[in-house]
Amino acid sequence: MSGRSKLLKVVLLGDGGVGKSSLMNRFVSNKFDAQSYHTIGVEFLNKEVTVNGESFTMQIWDTAGQERFKSLRTPFYRGADICMLTFAVNDRKSFENLPMWKREFLYYADIQDGAPFPFIVVGNKCDMPKREINEEMAQSWCSRNANAPYFETSAKDSTNVELAFISAVSRMREMEDQLDVKPIQTNSVDLSRKQRALNSGCCS
Amino acid sequence: MKSLLTMCGNGYKTLPEVSSERVSIPWCGVSRSVLIDLAVTQRDEGQVKKFIKSPYTTTLGGFSKVTNFLRDVLMTPEESQNLVRPQSEVAELLHDDIPGMEISQLDEPGFEMVTKTKLPPRPTVKRGDPLSSPEWNAFFDAEGRISKIDELKDIIFRGGVDPAIRADVWKFLLGFYDWDSCSKKRQDQRKRKVDEYFRMKLQWKTISAEQEKRFTLLKERRGLIDKDVMRTDRTHKFFAGDKNPNLQVLYDILMTYCMYNFDLGYVQGMSDVLSPILVVMENEVDAFWCFAGAMERVCHNFEMDQNGMKVQLSQIHKLMQIQDPELCSYLEAHDSGNFYFCFRWILIVFKREFHFHEIQRLWEVIWTDRPCTNFHLIISLAILDSEKSTLLENKFGFTEILKVGLC
């Protein structure tokens, strides 16, 4: 195990009330509070994770969803490693706004148009009986958007929350490998890669 | 020697443009000899020479920057236009010798730039007792008119209000009743407000589901309010439990406010402003109008361009440059010079940073507009001051500083 874990900045975006803070709190502290406050400004929490033998500190940034607070939200997009686009499966409007959130993120995170970036799409509140968006609709959007992985989650009953966050890290590492953009830590790159290859071999 | 500003009597005034050194000083009626008197007591001989050579520029060039700047930050534009302020409000801001002040002549030829100043030691302040019911009643004359409004506000500023009379006092603080109204007028005012409220409530109540399909803006606002009402102070007993009828009242008031101020509509954070007011008023109509009064004070925080927020955050920055240059440079050096970490404090006036009963006290103090309309900015500085040692000793970086704002 390497001594220091790499910091990963994860930005959670989506309309107000889709459950961004709840997803974060479920993942970080395994708690759910239906009556918690709506987010004002930005908040963040850290969580240590190990994915395929590599340690990371995920720093999850939770933002206020209302359009009005855009100018105070967007400065925090810079330097993001992962972006989670979230909607609620019982809220059509929140799904329809995904392209807007994606655009806003790319623009303010200053990511070149067309450059690959690890987006993850999360359809939250899958425990709710009345759906407005089914899985096919969401998958279809993802396939048109660089095949972003899609997860249906419920922060309330904990379904797939951990899976979504952990898969986001794997997705990021895959993309890094494909691009061979940058070594994560000097001198330890080769070692950690070997280790990862070994781990994935074990699992499969 | 007294403060220059104290001597000037009529307080802050914007300095006229100066084109020559011969200009008289209409600003305050202080004669040149007085200014020279002021100057010769200064320890720095160089300053004196410079002063005799160009007294106006030397003395006022430097001071005016500080005074103008403090004025702009602490006063609303309307107040700034009314340039004459009572002496009591402006005295003692700057003392004659201003220890720690450094002046640079290099930046602007002919002018001196105050590059560093140190404020005088902080005065000891003692909190008073809350305004009690007998005290409050004693302020009313036979016709039910409040006498000595200023004295009353001073008491509230110093000690707040006894919770038992909050609902009455807040109606004045929040403009539900005029301060100079008599009982008769207040009865009429209240009746009108009741009618007006239900008229506006009916406006959104009578929009059918069919109609709303073609009224996207209202539908969106309804959706947001719906969500936020379920997420506002639910741990407080007044709003606790499913199907709590007070949630409906919160909802109805916010929807009616959309009709009252359709241009602004509903913005997240408004439910936080309303909730403590509703808890105090325990009455829908009273709470609505008091909320509207409270919103009047903070509506610029919620405007689309967010300019009101940006201005206030930069004002905190400017004030801190004077009040605590050390902490200010620390924050600047750690990417926090924009003071975004204070965003929530300002947007909903510290609502989420204090306990419910504390926020009621803090708000009633702020609503007295003493000692200035932007007192909440000073409170922000005070909070940061209390966190200063934690911040510096632990060498907090950008993210930890942001956390300070969320505690």
UniProtKB/TrEMBL annotation, chain A:
Cellular component aspect of the GO annotation: cytosol; late endosome; lysosome; phagocytic vesicle membrane; plasma membrane
The protein, known as: small monomeric GTPase
Membrane topology: Lipid-anchor
Similarity comment: family membership: Belongs to the small GTPase superfamily. Rab family.
Organism of this sequence: Elysia marginata
Pfam families in the record: Ras (PF00071)
Class in the EC hierarchy, top level: hydrolase
Enzyme Commission code: 3.6.5.2
Molecular function per GO: G protein activity; GTP binding
InterPro entries according to UniProt: P-loop_NTPase, Small_GTP-bd, Small_GTPase
Matches recorded under Gene3D superfamilies: P-loop containing nucleotide triphosphate hydrolases
Keywords from the named record: Cell membrane, Cytoplasmic vesicle, GTP-binding, Hydrolase, Lipoprotein, Membrane, Nucleotide-binding, Phosphoprotein, Prenylation, Protein transport, Transport
Required cofactor names: Mg(2+)
Reaction(s) the record says it catalyses: GTP + H2O = GDP + phosphate + H(+)
Keyword Plastid: no
Location (main, coarse): membrane
UniProtKB/TrEMBL annotation, chain B:
Domain Rab-GAP TBC residues, every copy: 160-370
Gene3D superfamilies to which the protein is assigned, alphabetical: putative rabgap domain of human tbc1 domain family member 14 like domains, Ypt/Rab-GAP domain of gyp1p, domain 3
Subcellular compartments: Cytoplasm
PANTHER family xref list: LD27216P, TBC1 DOMAIN FAMILY MEMBER GTPASE-ACTIVATING PROTEIN
Any single Gene Ontology cellular-component annotation: cytoplasm
Species of provenance: Elysia marginata
UniProt-recorded name of the protein: TBC1 domain family member 15
Keywords (A to Z) from UniProt: Cytoplasm, GTPase activation, Phosphoprotein
Keyword hit for Phosphoprotein: yes
PROSITE patterns tied to this protein: TBC_RABGAP
GO molecular function: GTPase activator activity
One Pfam family matching this protein: RabGAP-TBC
Transmembrane segments: none
Chief subcellular location: cytoplasm
